[in-house]
TrEMBL record:
Any one GO molecular function term: L,L-diaminopimelate aminotransferase activity
Functional pathway: Amino-acid biosynthesis; L-lysine biosynthesis via DAP pathway; LL-2,6-diaminopimelate from (S)-tetrahydrodipicolinate (aminotransferase route): step 1/1
Protein name: LL-diaminopimelate aminotransferase
Functional summary from the UniProt entry: Involved in the synthesis of meso-diaminopimelate (m-DAP or DL-DAP), required for both lysine and peptidoglycan biosynthesis. Catalyzes the direct conversion of tetrahydrodipicolinate to LL-diaminopimelate.
Gene: dapL
PROSITE patterns documented for this protein: AA_TRANSFER_CLASS_1
Entry EC no(s): 2.6.1.83
Annotated organism of origin: Blautia hansenii DSM 20583
UniProt KW keywords: Aminotransferase, Pyridoxal phosphate, Transferase
Entry's Gene Ontology BP terms: lysine biosynthetic process via diaminopimelate, diaminopimelate-aminotransferase pathway
Keyword Transferase in record: yes
């Protein structure tokens, strides 16, 4: 008889988004015709930019004629896209080769798949509050997880603890849910820790394009020694609106070796075994993101989300409420007023002003008492939500 993967029994129910959906549905049923202002979404709302749409159309046409048709794509990514990414990193002074870049169908896929590189006995370190996928992918694989809690005392940017024996370390910066971004020296401390211990950092850079402070690192490879201890996982989802189009990339330096094994070579072997590459059409769309036009247009879209962030931040400033994020990330992480708990504040906003956000407790116990707003809503809804929040909490 087949033996199922019993580690699935150890997964905790991911009640967060389910609970939010249940509570909002009940509210709408009891208040027909009411319009909710959804400030909780982790999905983009603006469409793909013109440069991408044009490239996608052209690529579809390529597939229509024998001379320009593409069949199977190279498993690790189309050379034209890998080269475009090399140039994008070179602008920031990071020197990579095309073979160090692996095109993927998205960061979530990679965050799960990449674990194929590691033995089950590795200890995983997750910084809480955390993006739930890091935890679940490792639980499914039967790995032990340690949690490093963060809080206001370190602005949700904890330092490595030398006594912790972490093998695989997840770092998400700019962070979802807190919007906090590690400074160069803070990130360098993690790189040093990983090199000293022989650990590997899985660096989730899904929000790098939202960074506006010049001095903050966009990539872990801006730090000394990262090429011997880090894998960077990137996505086109939030930066270029590809959430429904699906595209990402992963950087595994050739210098990343453990126990005589070269992680880059291992990943080539993995991809050539387990994938047949990402769609030619989508990769063409992705390459257009790195064109001059594409960069200009995606940043125009990002600016719209950033204006939303400003509106929400001004409201919280006016109220004197503690928060982090917003400036270099599309999330604002606020302290619930009057000592309210996360879900209590969720209910309060829903009932009183029909604003929906995300309770911080859903990202880990240390998120209790905090609340996440996303800036991906429309400018109109965001302005209205901010106005109502100020009125309610003044
Ligand atoms: C949205 C998000 C992703 C998702 O990436 P996809 O490329 O859409 O799979 C990855 N990491 C974090 C932290 C995210 O918030």
């Amino acid at each position: 008889m087949v033996k199922p993967n019993m580690y699935y029994n150890e997964l905790k129910d991911s009640y967060l988004f389910y609970n939010i959906a249940q509570k909002t549905r009940t509210y709408v049923e009891n208040h027909p015709g009411v319009k909710l202002l959804r400030m909780g979404i982790g999905d983009v709302s603006l469409p793909l930019c013109d440069a991408v749409i044009k490239a996608l159309h052209e690529a579809v046409d390529d597939q229509a004629s024998k001379s320009s048709f593409h069949g199977y794509m190279p498993e690790c990514g189309a050379p034209f896209l890998r080269e475009a990414i090399v140039k994008y990193y070179a602008k920031r002074g990071i020197s990579l080769s095309a073979e160090e870049i692996f095109v993927s169908s998205g960061a979530s896929d990679e965050l799960g798949d990449i674990l194929d590189l590691f033995d089950r006995s590795n200890q995983v370190l997750v910084i809480e509050p955390a993006y739930p996928a890091y935890v679940d992918a490792n639980v499914m694989a039967g790995r032990k997880i340690m949690y490093l809690v963060s809080g206001e005392e370190n602005e949700f940017l904890p330092e490595p603890n030398e006594k912790t024996e972490a093998d695989i370390i997840y770092i998400c910066s700019p962070n979802n849910p807190t919007g906090a971004v590690f400074s160069r020296s803070q990130l360098q401390a993690w790189v040093n820790y990983a090199n000293k211990r022989g650990s590997i950092i899985l660096f989730d850079a899904a929000y790098e394009a939202f960074i506006e402070d010049e001095i903050l690192p966009h990539s872990i490879f801006e730090l000394d020694g990262a090429e011997t201890c880090a894998i960077e996982i990137c996505s086109f989802s939030k930066t270029a609106g590809f959430t429904g189009t699906r595209l990402g990339y992963t950087i595994i330096p050739k210098a990343l070796k453990r126990n005589g094994m070269n992680m880059n070579e291992m990943w080539v072997r993995n991809r050539t075994t387990k994938t047949n590459g990402v769609s030619y059409i989508i990769q063409k769309g992705g390459a257009a993101v790195f064109s001059e036009e594409g960069q200009k247009q995606i940043h125009e879209n990002i600016q719209i989300y950033k204006k939303n962030a400003k509106v929400l931040m001004q409201a919280l400033d006016q109220l004197g409420i503690w928060y982090c994020g917003g400036k270099n990330a599309p999330y604002i992480w606020m302290k619930c007023p009057r000592g309210m708990k996360s879900w209590e504040f969720f209910d309060y906003l829903l009932q009183e002003i029909q604003v929906v956000g995300t309770p911080g407790e859903g990202f880990g116990a240390c998120g209790e008492g905090y609340f996440r707003f996303s800036t991906f809503s429309s400018p109109e809804d965001t302005k209205e939500a901010a106005k109502r929040i100020v009125k309610l909490l003044s």
